[in-house]
Amino acid sequence: MNASNDAFVEFDRVQKSYDGETLVVKDLNLGIGKGEFLTMLGPSGSGKTTCLMMLAGFETATHGDIRLDGRPINSVPPHKRGIGMVFQNYALFPHMTVAENLAFPLQVRKMGKDEIETRVKRALDMVQMGDFGGRRPAQLSGGQQQRVAVARALVFDPELVLMDEPLGALDKQLREQMQFEIKHIHEQLGVTVVYVTHDQSEALTMSDRIAVFNDGRIQQLAPPPDLYERPENSFVAQFIGENNTLDATIAERDGEFVKVEFVDGSTGQALAVNCGGPGEKTRLSLRPERVTFAQPGEWGVAGKVKELIYLGDHIRVRMQVLGNNDFVVKVPNASRHATLSVGETASLSWVAEDCRALDAA
Amino acid sequence: MSLKLKMMMAGAGIAGAAVAGAAYAADELPACEGCADSMTVVSWGGAYQNSQQKAYSEPYAEMTGVEFVWDESSNEAVAKLRAMAEAGNITWDLVDVVASDAMRLCDEGLAEEIDFDSALAEAPDGTVATEDFGEMIVSDCFVPQIAYSTTFGYRTDVAEWNGETPDDICDVFDLEAFPGKRALEKRPINNMEWALLCSGVAKEDIYDTLETEEGQAQAFAKLDEIKDSVVWWSAGAETPQLLADGEIVMGSTYNGRLFALIEEQKQPVAMMWDAQVYDLDGWIVPAGLPEDRKARVMHFLKFATDTQRLADQAKYISYGPARQSSAPLVGQHAELGIDMAPHMPTNPENATNTFLYNYEWWADYRDDLDAKFQAWLLR
Amino acid sequence: MAEATANGDIAPDEHRSASGQLLAADGTPLKKSIRRSEARARLRAFLLVAPLLIFVLLSFIAPIADMLFRSVENEIVADTLPRTVEALDAWDPQTGPPPEPVYRAFYDDMLEATELKIHTRLGSRLNYEESGMSSLFRKTNERRLERFDLDQPLQPQFVDLDKDWGEVEPWAVIKTFAPRYTWGYFLQAADMRLTPGGVEMAPEFEQIYLKLFWRTILLSCTITLSCLLLGYPVAWLLSNLPARSANLLMILVLLPFWTSLLVRTSAWKVLLQEQGVINDILVYIGIVSDAGRLVMINNQTGTIIAMTHILLPFMVLPLYSVMKTIPPSYLRAAKSLGATDWTAFWRVYFPQSVPGIGAGAILVFILAIGYYITPELVGGTDGTFISNRIAFHISTSLNWGLAAALGSLLLILVLGLYWLYDRIVGIDNVKLG
Asked: Transmembrane region positions (chain C) (predicted)?
């Protein structure tokens, strides 16, 4: 996870404090490869936007270095960093037309008139907004403004584009479409993108890698499947996707696995990922879709059905398991399954590899 | 006119020790039948209004219980009275104005004509009011109260003057002997006369000269000589303040203001009485008052302008009483305890060279010359 | 019901009158009923705005109408001297003094006027046009007119009373200003004169009002500009500070509103005069010599400084309210796109603050153009405004007609500038908050 030497963007032991008392970013080390789509994901106040602002140059790091293509940029003013940026509310200049908005970064770079015209047209065509050059931002829909904002951030060919929750203001359908378009543009141009969002599905869909932020630190940096399948701590497990937790005590270690003792004294096996030695507390993480109903004679824990939610392709079953009242099991809606009813007791089972023993948090 | 006035007013200087005037006993003041029991009096505010309250209204209120409301609007009294008359609602009962304003109000029909002998008290020796006031009566509507003068004060600590002090009106125009800024009033009246006087026009020819375009040009040319060194004032309080701050080395203002500056505030300032211009201040009664209010005003007016009351006012401010018979009664300042007579504009030592404001002439030429004066200021 | 409107042959029902009109539930025709209910709504709306309407009519429209009327009204001459005016109609000033019938008519008019004591008022009025008329009319009083021998020609007796009655001028003035309505005041307000021979420009050395109008506009522009230069950064700071510090700063900005005019002005005098605080400091640190103290008051500088101070809040408040709505992300976006701080400000932030500038500038300019107390106190001779002359004519010279004409010109001027502003900037582009 440490910054590698060949990274395009590099955070090296970066700290940030606004008031001199609390750190909003604590000892951040992050390397972003050229052409990568990296998403900073985390709840609000986790420090992800601050990181983005430091990279853009609107905030200065209290300590540590930020390097762009090997050069430290701490003392480079924002307008000399050559980084494109898409803002949460698009920040399209209301007094300029769409074309003027796009021409702005080219004009300040003192490009020729003809070249500006060509580039603006190309950028607008790229986001399918070719016919809208003469409009004012206020005359565009949210999605159209979004496209213009993306086009403006890209029109001067920056090697790095920052996006600060760019889809936050759009409705769900438009958001999904735009996710696809942005991803598409990224692949087409090969530009490096640092994307900030608090929407995990957005992060999972678009990113090459995701840095999960919490409490001023990166909790885990990994490609989306890893993040979902193999969370390294209970925050990530809980934050990404749906998750069941069970508190337990480690009884003994067994190679890659640990034997754990649950609150009711029963025992089970789990994959030792991020837990201590025997006698220490651990929190087990288990995805709902990995839980099955035990066959007779198989190992299992008892659970009581509290609620059934019919969702068409599957049924969501909320159960009380080992003191956890919100233990969710997704039961595929297949004909061979016996019907459950509320109040019924059933035996649940899973394979030890799917049950990850993490920090007790 | 001015000669007689001067002789008459000089009496104040001779008076010296005051004869304690007999105070009105309550039973001597005739009862006022069908009179309003409050009145609104308009004056100038400040030390002058204070002297009127001490000398006139407070004793009167004590004897009659009449309630006084004071309004400090005298400097815009003419316009306000005209507006009141147009609106048909006159809220003032007695208004203190300078003589020229009184003439205007009289011309406009806004002030009541006064029958002096019946409305005003006789002198203690039985002289009727018209004779006692004499030449001070300049308008049918105007009851004179005091004579004041517009004159110069100068700082006594100006190093550049090499120990010289200005004692001639033309020293005001002499920037070589007396360098420094001067304050003059922002209007043609007085300034034009002084300018002509110092450009060689004889005193008795001044107004005839000023009537002609050449005469006016001559006066402006004289004023041009000092224009760059002049601070123009429009409120009487400005010159004393400018003198005290050292902003100017000499300036014209009302002699009472200078008295306060010199004797009460002890500033290093002295009076230059040469070519002082006498003017009158007094009462007018607005035309068209209801009977009860008018009766009250006339009752008060008779009291407030009798010989003793006018002399009393001089205890508080260095302005000369308008009645001949009051002059011998002028005594000492009520608080400072100094003789007031040497500070009166009419004291023979002060009055060696004086002017009397020519009301008739200025009533005709004021608007015309004022426009020309303002245009000159703009140049 | 739709088919019932036209077809007369359908039998009338309870919703319809014999003539086929639609009826409301109470039997009145529907249209009438709608009209009635609408009339009620209209009446209610009218009653709701009536107090304000009456207030505006009485306190704003009526005085302005009165002012416009006064600026042309001139009934006093024809009312006081009706016969004289008629008799002068046939007289030509070129032919010398008027004939005997004019003196006869004048005698009759004056006899009535002196009895009513209104002849001096006419004298004051005509004195605005010709110096000397005031005393001429005052002299021509009841007592002296009664001594006239009516069996003898009157002209010599008038000349005997005052030789001016034998001259052409007084009669020419009466004749020129005989009409009940006159442009004379407006001409005077534009430095022109109405003479028997027609309209003339006033002599060069008497021209004053055009200069004053010009100066008023120039100084008001300067004041507006300096308010903008000083207020813009303050408003920017205000809109970017956290609420608590912004409130404190706002109180400082509003401070001029809370101190009395005289206190403020005295404070400026203490600061700015030649022996004042600023000059003392400058002399002390050696920037100016004791002999070369700066003159900062009783001139235009004084007026500009004092009025900028007083009017600054009127610039800051609209600017602030507009700037408050400009998100900081615009500046960030501009910088991220490669603009320097200055370019980002000039091309992105500034154009968006223009509505605030427009509102502030209009407010300050219109307030400045009508100010007169402050210029009177600190303006000396070259820092006074046209309003000072208006005030002078209202309160001192009592020439209300001229004051009204000057005021009307000022009103027209402001409306003209407002129109110009609308044409250039667009009045929609003004935001007060």
From this structure: 45-65, 212-238, 245-263, 304-322, 354-373, 400-421
